[in-house]
């Protein structure tokens, strides 16, 4: 499996595109710049099988319908946020963008609990990692030693918890009980900023000491 990090939009939200040798692809968090993302996928001759959302904040969902409409692929989100996509007040876009609220059609599939998600040749362990938002999840590929953590864990930082539904203590518990339990060489593909590893964050993330 090959994966590509694509920072999109004014908040430079990381979309991730995973692909196999057959050019099947998974798109995680297509946050903005829909036409450009669709064009890039076409130029790479990729065939998206699904869109996976770590959570439904507006900066992670802006290109969902562009990609879904073009490639006819389903969208997956945790059930706690299944009604956030079409609602600018819940996904935060009304608060930050006013009348330019960002919305998308409801997801095609909801994730109800931790499970193994198999999509074509791709396989992920779905880890429930709430705290940044109630329905935040991380997608872990054990085979490829990488976890797509959304806005739960960043390089030398953690997700903000001052937005509606955020909970600082819950986020710390999610990180310690779910993410830091992964092998230390696991790559953490964050929702913003550079990638890191579980081991690096265990050793030096200032937000995780003294928990």
Automatic annotation (TrEMBL):
<keyword id="KW-0862">Zinc</keyword>
<dbReference type="Pfam" id="PF00753">
    <property type="entry name" value="Lactamase_B"/>
</dbReference>
<dbReference type="InterPro" id="IPR001279">
    <property type="entry name" value="Metallo-B-lactamas"/>
</dbReference>
<dbReference type="InterPro" id="IPR051453">
    <property type="entry name" value="MBL_Glyoxalase_II"/>
</dbReference>
<keyword id="KW-0378">Hydrolase</keyword>
<dbReference type="InterPro" id="IPR036866">
    <property type="entry name" value="RibonucZ/Hydroxyglut_hydro"/>
</dbReference>
<protein>
    <submittedName>
        <fullName>MBL fold metallo-hydrolase</fullName>
    </submittedName>
</protein>
<feature type="domain" description="Metallo-beta-lactamase">
    <location>
        <begin position="12"/>
        <end position="192"/>
    </location>
</feature>
<keyword id="KW-0479">Metal-binding</keyword>
